[in-house]
Amino acid sequence: MSSPVKASTMAEKPIDSTHIEKSDPALSVSSSNRDEENSPREPGQDWTDEEEKSLVKKVDWRVFPMLCIVFGLSLLDRTNISAAYIAGMSTDLQLTVGARYSIALLVFFIGYALFEIPSNLVIRRLGAQWWLSFLIVAWGLSVLGMGFVHSWEALTVCRALLGVFEAGLFPGAIFIIGSWYKQFETARRVSLFYMASLLSSGFGPIFAYALSLIRVGDGIYRQGWRWIFIIEGIVTVVAGMVAPRFLVEFPEKAKFLNDREKHIANARLLTDKKARAHVEPTLKESMKMLLDWKLIIYSLQYFVSASSVYSLAYFKPIILRQGMGFSYALSQILASPPYVFAIIMSLTMAWVSDKYRIRWPILCGQSVTAIVGLLIILYCKPPGVRYFGLYLAIFGTQANVPGTLAYGQSQTADVRKKGVVAAAMISVGAAGGITGSTIFRSQDAPVS
Q1: Angle of the 49-84 helix axis to the 186-212 helix axis, nearest 10
Q2: pTM of whole model > 0.85?
């Protein structure tokens, strides 16, 4: 078996592809079935297309299921505060006074921004399974603690801790995905990962409504909003405890692959990206990577997407309840359908992006859709029309999150730089979260 280094060396020598096809029929690929995952054989490739296709399918089933579950829980845990707000927490903790609610929202993003890059520098050294599992349990305990707070200050502290522990999951997951797949395999998979987990955001309000109906004994346990945090926190802690069994490591540490499969997994990326074998970047190298002007541009794109996503996530129930005049129960129910629409359309656009190997036209089209949706919400009067605008706004903003991240990963050839790129973009996105959490001010709410 040839080593990845040997494969990479062979790739540098020009080889007559016609001669290869004549001398080895196994290397011949029909032009009718060539696509992004069954591409023409690269020079120096010492495995068949059937082997690669089988490996990719095996990796898909091992990489994504648990990542989607825990990321879905993270989205649910960071946004369930909006469901608790209209379920009575705003009154019990007096969050309507001044900017208390906005403060409780934005403190999450301070730790979230500060700890993303350090987490991605640690994840390779400690291993994805144990590091991510620790983070999941820790933020689950933070959510559980929110079910027992008696003041908005205590709620704010729990939110700050939640941001610290959730910081490493998303960039870590993007880093893992970028380490397993070729350039034009990533957009569809990052979008699938993000949108599958987005189901929790879509149906989270309905779940929260059901939990808010729980009443136990007397005192604080009769306040339904507390059970949103208690139950969801317990679920997250349990998920963190079983995560080491299901989370996947990086290719060089993967135990579910045999030696042949590990070789193919690493060599096909070297062939695709002409990248070097992975070597941990030093702190100085990491800082130099952060100063790349292209990374700054990607990060600004992600900042815009993140600010829009978070503003809608945190204030959507309030917009439906106070802005459009729907009842509490109907506001929670109507919060879900726009996310189903966003998932379907986002996966479709991601497939188009990978199929035709285009990135920026898709991102621009989704941005225009979001702008149109937000303008409809702002200027139209009938609640039904404004609700339609919510569909467009949520699709346009949510779809650009995985699209922008895939863009950054696809344009990063150096494997060592991928983790830094993912963490840096999402760290800047945390600043978008601060912006999004302060866009809707209490004094701007419609007079009831």
Answers
A1: 30
A2: no
